[in-house]
Amino acid sequence: NGKKLKTKQKEINEFYIYNAGSIGKIEYYVNDTWDDKDKKNFVFQPGGSNIEAGLNYVINPHCFFGYFDGFKMNPIQIEVKKPAEMYGSGNLTKSSKDNITDIIEAPNYVFLADNPIMYCVPDTTSFQVAAANIHISVYSVNGIVKSKKVAEYLQPVAGALKEFLKDLPVSEYHFLYYFDDPERLQTSKSKGLSGGYGALEHNHSSFYYLPESRYEKNLVETVKHVSSHEFLHLVTPLNLHSEEIEHFDFLHPKMSKHLWMYEGVTEYFSYLAQIRGNIITEKDFRKEIRSRLNRGSQFGNFSMTAMSSDVLSPSNQKLYLSVYSRGALIAMLLDIRITELTAGKKTLQSVMMALSQKYGTAKPFKDDQLFDDIIALTHPKVKDFINAFIIGEEALPYFELSKLGWDYAEERRDRIYFCGYFGVKYDEKNAAFSFAKTGENVYGVQDNDILLAVNNTPVTMDNFSELFDKYLQINENGEAVDITINRNGTQLQLHGVPRSGISTMRNYLGELKDLDETQKMIRKAILNK
To answer: What secondary structure letter does DSSP report for 365?
Structure first.
């Protein structure tokens, strides 16, 4: 009757409404998380919300809508008033009442919360892989990235993932991308706003917050890897997950102990699918694994299951990112161990596929049962690996990477030809590569010098990586190098002779030449090489 009812905030996410039988409507304002200056309660962009009037609205439904206790599984209908030129992308069923009104429907709150929506002037592209329709929606702050280009990057990846999974387990899937200006994010951080690039997966979509870049090589690599990782979450946790995820308690979350699988196996599989599909080379794969060896070592040795089940505590939050390094390495070493013990009859991939068939989207496993399932599908000695390296705190046996035909050394000393201290970044403003963080170096380059040519070869987006790896910071053969730069508008020729020295490399990974029959079998089963 137009009168306010008394309310009480019981917890941060819970309100009690007195005399609730008299409710006519509830009105409230929401502020977006992307501009929130509260560093203590920072919300990762892909899980938060963005409100840019007239430009872009990122709506993760849990940021905007709640539910009445006891009615979480009731149907929901949402009416959205919007600018006529805007389109809402996402998986939710949507119909247009008129050109400024959308009607969005969800069978229940759990389904609603799992489906982000992005409103903006539409830039969308779709393509088909097998029986699956793949939809791409892009918002690029400066208009640098277009959905048609992103689709070109994703099509071969989607094809590789289809081959890896044998089939795509969805008929419709939506990739929602927000590409931000990197300088704007840096400015936001200087104003006290938090930020970081990344993505979050959902059952039929994934949302991405990534940097714009005119340097297409960086853009392609970022989009391919992050997108393949999120898409592969269709295996786990979306098709294979525990009761804690299936019956999620929004107010008092209970966490599964298997983040090593949800994130670690997914991260490993995202590269494994790409190397099998010839999207990346084996050298690229080794480079990625080596980066995870170096990153994983920063966290030390700890029980992955103990961390995961208590991941919301401050101490374990600090260990969370280890799931992408240590977790991926656990997956790879477990894959090698399973393949060896079963003489190639089983791999980690075949085990995950078998578990997905046993359980599936609507049948969760018991958290304490998963390891028994894995052991039953593989070999009794897999239990030793699980007890030592996933439940236990033992150092991971990296030397077993040699079973894949790789040469591993915890530390290796080599003679190198070093040109000094400097970095190179892509200068978006000048559409060129410039030097940064320079120290003593044989060329005498300074911060903001623009690199024009190496040994009279003009530097382009296509050849920069090759020239940099061969001639600059670490020189392949020690020969003198001439570079052409632009310094404050003046073109200069610089000459440098690399210095010889001994370099100590941590976690060296190389290629073994002479392989035994077991190594050949494991390579064939895992890498298809």
So the answer is: B
Q: Which residue has the tokens 């936001």?
A: 188
Per-residue pLDDT of 259-307, as tens digits, reads 999 999 999 999 999 999 999 999 999 999 999 999 999 999 999 999 9
Distance CA 129, CA 169 (A): 11
Using CA atoms in the order 86, 90, 94, 100, what is the torsion angle rounded to 10 degrees? -10
Q: Is the Cβ–Cβ distance between 236 and 263 less than 8 Å?
A: no
**What phi and psi, each to the nearest 5 degrees, are found at residue 344?**
85, 0
| 358/350 Cα distance (integer angstroms) | 12
* 258 contacts 305 by C-beta, under 8 angstroms: yes
Phi/psi-derived region of residue 6, left when phi > 0, alpha when psi is between -120 and 50, beta in every other case: beta
pLDDT, tens digit (0-9, with 9 covering 90-100), for 101-151: 999 999 999 999 999 999 999 999 999 998 899 999 999 999 999 999 999
Picking from 458, 456, 446, the residue whose alpha carbon sits closest to that of residue 487 is 446
Give the pLDDT confidence score for residue 217 in this predicted structure.
87
For every residue of 404-432, DSSP letters joined together read: GTEEEEEEEEEEEEE-BS-EEEEETTTTE
Rounded to a whole number of angstroms, the distance between the first and last alpha carbons of the chain is: 73
- Nearest-angstrom CA–CA distance, 279 and 258: 29
DSSP letters along 72-110, please?
A: TTS-EEEEEE--TT-EEESSSEEEEEETTEEEEEESSHH
* DSSP class of 4: P
The C-alpha R_g of the chain, in whole angstroms, comes to: 26
Q: How many CB atoms lie within 10 A of CB 366?
A: 11
pTM recorded for the entire structure = 0.90
CA separation for the pair 392, 388 (Å, rounded): 5
As given in the structure block, the two tokens for residue 277 are: 């599909």
Between CA 215 and CA 464 the distance in angstroms is 10
Do the beta carbons of residue 49 and residue 59 sit within 8 Å? Answer: yes
d(CA 143, CA 123): 10
- Cβ atoms of residues 137 and 145 within 8 Å: no
Helices 517-527, 326-341: crossing angle, 10 deg rounding:
120
Which residues does 18 contact at the CB level (< 8 Å), separation at least 6? 5, 6, 7, 8
User: How far is it, in rounded angstroms, from Cα 261 to Cα 347?
Assistant: 15
Query: Where does 99-230 show beta strands of DSSP type E?
Result: 101-106, 117-120, 124-129, 132-140, 172-180, 198-201, 205-211
Measured between alpha carbons, how far is 231 from 206 in angstroms, rounded to an integer? 7
Backbone angles phi, psi at 373, to 5 degrees: -65, -45
Angle at alpha carbon of residue 34, lines to 437 and 16, rounded to 5°: 150
Cα–Cα distance for residue pair 428/363, rounded to 1 Å? 49
